[in-house]
Records
---
Amino acid sequence: MFFRSLLAVGALALASAVQAQEPIRIGAFLSVTGPAAFLGDPEQKTLELYVEKINAAGGVLGRKLQLYSYDSAGDAEKARAYVKRLIEQDKVDVLVGGSTTGETMAAVPLAEAANVPFISLAGAVVIIEPVKKWVFKTPHTDRMACEKVFDDMRARGATKVALISGAGGFDRSMRAECLKVAAQRGVQIVADESYGAGDTDMTAQLTKIKNTPGVQAVLNCGFGQGPAIVTKNYRQLGIQVPFYQSHGVASKQYVKLSGDAAEGVRLPAAALLVAETLPAADKQKKVVVDYKREYEARFKSEVSTFGGHAYDGLMLAVDAIKRAGGTDRAKVRDALESTKGYMGTAGVVNMSPKDHMGLDLSAFRMLEVRKGDWTLVQ
Amino acid sequence: MSAELVQFLVAGITLGAIYALVALGFAIIYNASHVINFAQGEFVMIGGMAATAFVDSGLPLPLAAAAAVAAATLVGIALEKLAVEPARNASVVTLIIITIGASILLRGLASLVWDKKIHSLPAFTGERPIAIGGATLLPQTLWVLGATVVAVAALWWFFNRTLTGSAILAVSHNRLAARLMGISVRRVLMVSFGLSAGLGALAGILIAPISFTSWDVGVMLGLKGFAAAILGGLGSGPGAIAGGLALGLIEALGAGYLSSAYKDVFAFVIILGALVFLPDGLAGRRAAERV
Amino acid sequence: MSRKGFAVLALVVALLPLALTNNYTYEVAIVVGLNAIVCVGLNLLIGYAGQISLGHAGFFGLGAYGSAILAARYGWPPFAGLAAAVAAVSLIAWIIGKPVLRLKGHYLAMATLGLGIIVAVVLATEDQVTGGPDGMPVPPLTLGSVVLQGEKLWYWIVAVVLLATVWLALNLIDSPRGRAWRALHGSEVAAGAIGIDPARHKLSAFVLSAALAALAGALTAHYSGFITPAKASFLHSIELVTMVVFGGMASTFGAVVGAAILTTLPQLLTVFKEYEMVTLGAVMMLTMIFMPQGLVPTLEKALAAARRKPE
């Protein structure tokens, strides 16, 4: 009898010990290769770096983090297959990923059906509007970018605006949002041109814009090499009106590629880009400076706002797991939804049942390129 | 002529010259081997990426460019030896799959050997736009146009005045007869692949200052170069140039006067129309078909 | 041979669920089936009738979007929308096939490539109707009041459609039309000389393969619950042609095997992480260089040769 109860106690202790060692499974599907490698590559690096750091510091609630990450290469179909794999085979506790909106939207029905908390790293407003129970996101929406830009244009006296956008999902989604919110923001869209993926010259489109009567400012919705070419063409044609880019090109690569042509270009971006020059009193300064230093020290390459979104996604998940006391999916979801006052690289996050992104317009800063570097527009 | 139209024409010719160089690469290989090399765009990419890598490691631009062209030429020869020669008796479709597989392989290698970032080269003679008829033109564009003209002239001289060039032409007309005359078909194939690769690399280096380069810049350019080569009539060098320029002008004028969102659609609709009414392309030869 | 082959296929399809452990593996099997449906049709065009199409994903995309838009934006009952979409795509294929199939070889390749790109660009640009490059959600198929959802149910739906498609293909190949296709492939002029109208038969192969691609596209849309223009892209067209050529041209089972291997391969290659692309390209090249006839015909020949060896 004694021996049996000893056995039972031993088994129980072993079981709970095994339970305690059970890692917390973070599932990620990112566009590490393909047309959106610009997004997925820093995201992948960031997740690897911080999972390592967190584990080195003892893990979360005494449990190690384990990262399962797949390259969906910007393909929504692949993303779907990988998310199924992550949920069914790898049995992850939380999903962080979906570099592009297309991939995210493919994964949304799966996360909803399987009741897995999903933090998306993509930009379009459609991800969290209408609100879906299990889906959250960390980047600012493209609609917020339009609003920020239009407000700045109004402040400079420009109300007749020309749009030029690329062909990708990010480009078209932001363009659609800008067309929607223009009137509400006091701005009129007088021209709407497009270029294709891989195009090498946009002077034809810009010539049309230049010759549009009354145009007072131009906004380029795009990312990758397109906007850099547009910027160079803009200066080549000698267009004088203010030129705005989107947060899609919030990286030094854009400035480097555009060279002198980028002088005076404005864009909305996260404070991460001007981390060191933020005033000391800025509450966001510590988070962004730390992330910037750690990322650049490890990877020897420029920090990127997209990597910042992955950082925020991981940290929000970890924070929610801590507050939920474990990986019970419903509890983690509730904890995520009640995140308040969390300071991330994108800004301060206050989630609610109606708002699964938690950022407001102040999280976006207006930056201007001067002498090849970012400066904050006050 | 309105300044607007001049600007559209300038844009069209800029695009057209690039497409022409890529199309020329397709034409040379097709002429010698009747293979469409879907990896042609990747040679353009290798030229640009290798040149930027060499420049970053300290070489002066002319040396870096020469080294990049040499590197691409070697890759072209390797492609011919390792992929095309072993499969020389395969069907058209199989060869298409092989060269597409090669382009995927080269892209994957490029993203590993270099990186997935976008790179640029300094413009050869600066960036001050040149005013012409109310429009503006970049000096680099003149380099692209100039190089295309020089390439066409050099190739004409090569094909018509040198032994190797004539050998390539002979093989393209009748492979068996050429072999009977003592021409090494293998050497001819090697030379044409190497030549095409070098030409593609040159194009990549010339356009890197204006439209940058990255590991996947070859996909779209390869596709449009192929379309231009077909439009001009496969296997015809002058046809490839004409096709390239035509494609560039259609795109620019379509974007300018019709709809910029649909400019590629116009281009392909026109190509389709041209093919239906001129099944051998603008300058294509009516080949006699063995029944 | 084809009767035996069909029986084997039916057996594999019936027994496969025993090996499928979770929804993810079911998903892979379903995608294999859907790709196989397109490939069997495409093989009739490429392998038997000897034509080429580098734009077949365009038909796939049109079928998918046609059915999705009719169901989502116009409230059509899903099966009616599906049938209408397949019929419409067949009509489109018939209309454009007539002039385009007069072209040969690389010119035909270019024409079909151009068509595919036109479809992909239009689908991505008309975002008010199609949802743009990010795609649109698609309502599921319903049979009366029953909603057709779930991996296990869809496995059987796709299995039945695939078996029906293979049956159709095998019977067509052995019919006068199939023999006409093979005659065409051998020599168009000679076929014409013995009274086979090349234009009519090329068109029939083209339209049939387009209809099958559209059907697979519509089924994919309703199964996945979403659709993006990437499904009509040049890359997808190339994937489809590769599956057909890799599996073996002029071999219906080859098309199925090609679809199966090339759909599951990327899933297996994830272990290679950043070397995935390099590996895929290398696999494509090596298999085509060493097995230019494709996998199944090469295996068939090897088996036949082994059997002929004296024991």
Note: Chain A is about 45% helix and 15% strand.
---
Amino acid sequence: MNNMSSIIIFPLFGFFILSIFQRKISNFFSALIGIGSIFFSLGIIFHIFFCYFNNRSGFDFFSQHIEIWNNIRSLNFKFDLLMDKFSIFMLLMIGLVGFLIHVFSYWYMKSEEEFSTYFSYMNLFIASMFLFILSDNLLLMYCAWELVGLCSYLLIGFYHRKKMSYKSAMKAFLMTKIGDIFFCLSIFILYSHFKTTNLNDLKIFLKNSLLAKDWQFHFSIFCLLVAAVSKSAQIPLQTWLTDAMVGPTPVSALIHASTMITAGVYLIVRTNFLFSMSPTILLLIGIIGILTVLFSCFAALFQNNIKKILAYSTMSQIGYMFIAISVKCWNAAIMHLIIHSFFKSLLFLSSASIISFFNGEENILKMGGARKKQPFIYFCFLVGGASLSSLPLITSGFYTKGQILCFLLENKNWMLLFSSLIGVLLTSIYTFRMIFLIFHVKREKQKVSYLNNSFFHTFPLFVLLIFSTVFIMFFPPFSSIFFDFYNKNYIFTKRNFLEFISSMLSIIGVLIPYDLYVNKKNIFYKLSKKNIYLNKYSFNNTNFGFDFFYDFIFVKPYFFIVEKISIDPFKKLFSFFSFFIIFFHNIFLCLVKKTLSWHILFFVSGASFFCLSFIFLCYLTH
Amino acid sequence: MIPIQHGLLLSMLLFFSGLFLILTRRNFLFILIGLEIMNNACSLILVFASNYVHQLDGQILYLLIITLSAIESGIGLALLIQMHRYYKTLNIDVLSEICE
Amino acid sequence: MELTFYFFSAISILSTFCIIFSFDVMYSLLYFLISILSTSGVFFSLGAFFPGVIEVIIYVGAIMVLFIFTLITLNLEKDSKQKKRNFSFLINWKIFSLIFLMLFFSFLYFLYFFNNGEMNFMSESDNIRKFGNKLLSSYAILFEFISMILLSGIVITFYIGKKNK
């Protein structure tokens, strides 16, 4: 367990090498460094994982002391790492998905100019994500949180020559910055209460304290929740995620589908002892989760951009995790998080192949008929979609989502359960609408470019394909996820009934878009054609008014205030000084701009001025 | 019995006429002549001063200054020849790189 | 003595003004010659014979000859004919003359303070021998220094005047 820090150090080292030798090393070599560093840390993670499960000697967590940050009187922040049950699964997931996406990026980005810059950003991201997961105090966590946000900003704006790209990068950065400020605020409040930010110390303090009625304490928990909501793109602060899809698609797969976006959920799970003390906040989490699930499902139904549909589906799946958190089943949330990251990165990677197959076309209404031309990608996308819409028995998403639904049933939380079931139906509808439109419907006049199936392309897709199915249970690290978390169920009959209902709903969700888009004899076919045209006029591109709302509430008053402040009296004072300086500047400029005789004249007059003043002084003193 | 004021006035007038010559002409040759006049005026003062204090040290310094002015005119004329060789003119403003 | 002093100084000032107002190089050199000769006359009138002789030898014998040689080699007649006969008060002659006159009158004002000195004819006959003794004994280092400066001046003039290939 002493080599926990090297997990972080390898990608960080790769980042430094790549950023120092930018463009001086060949593409292959920079990819080798970028992928190899992740591979080494993945190996260490596997090693630690087996150590962790082989010696269960009563300890549930391991910690490693590295460095004391600063030691000013009572301020004593330590740079420590802490690993427990949740963080080791998160580490495993991020290492694996990050490695596979790095391998895929070598295929996807090979024609880019700033190839090594891309890999250095990705390595920095992975390193800071590991740091975020392993850090044992909130302050270090906050630093890693900021680093992750920075990497996200850099990678969204990777195609910085496009105007849309840096605009959305700035938008994402600002929207997540709101959460960062709240995170900071909550750290301040917690520190003022407990004089520590260490998670273990906080846990011990909370057992003995009577803070349940202190409103400041509850406010700090609320601040943590806002931070998680902004990072995980839940409903009031979700607008940045769909715009963040302008970045490279592997980046969307890694950051905005599987790892960074789930950092909010992980933050809540990591500080679960805080959240479990406040039932109202938990209720708020549940409400946010439901609203996000329903909103994003409806939004995805009317969306035509393939990456934006996937972004909405990410939001809705994280909404499920929030619902699971609201009924205090942390295990189910983490389990769904891990499985979700596998099938979502599979979907994103295969969508990257589809987009490059259709020459950069992202509108699903203009795609179609790719099933026979690209059978492997079709199969990948189908399995990922099936896992997303939780088709029964064969997919891994079915079990994890079923787990969440079971917990809802156990807690008799009917509202959450009902809306989650609606979400299941809608999820399978929009997923299979997308699949049928891309692969089954035939269109004419398409420009396609056939992909060369290199190892770097197929290998990550193949591994993720296996992990998205039920076969994941037979792989040793992940089998323990299921057996650790899964066998706590005891109401089997009710559970089977619930699973039957949810699977029926998802199958219905498959059949409806099949009727609409594929079965031409159906009477709905004509309606569907109209539906296609209706989509053009949908109000979807403005994020259902959220953008307008934020613009009206925050941006316009800000500019209004800025405009008012800009005409202040002090400015005139300063402009007077600047006028003064410019005046003398113009006077002295005539000394510079003139010809030789002027230089001589001023030189002679200056020298004689000093001589004469000296003589004059001598005369005065005598 | 000449008051020293008059001698100094003479050298000052010579000095300022040399300065005026430098300032108002663009021809490099005239500038050199002006410099010689100014040197001459300065050396005048030394001789007057040695006469005033009845010591010969001022005349020795006069020797130094006249040597310097000879060297200066030699170097200046060499530069003038080079300038005429490259620019085919003696206008001093051609050389200026500060002003536009 | 006073008469010769004022006579030669008047001639030197007049000839120097003539340099200012003449636009032909050859004529201005001639006026310069007259000015230098009259200056040496001023030296003789004060009894400083050695500086007067040196003035004539070096200025007239060396520097003037150099100037005239360069004039001959450069063949400047075309240039001098094309020149307009006016001063180039470059940008703003008002500011120019203001500064110049200010300088002139401030110097003139300070001359006003030196009103108690007198210059006499140095009547000692062995002035030149004393001069030589002083130059080669207590000012020997200065003498060597002058020779070094002359040598370096020759080297620099050779270097600059060399024709670049």
Note: The mean pLDDT of chain A is 80.
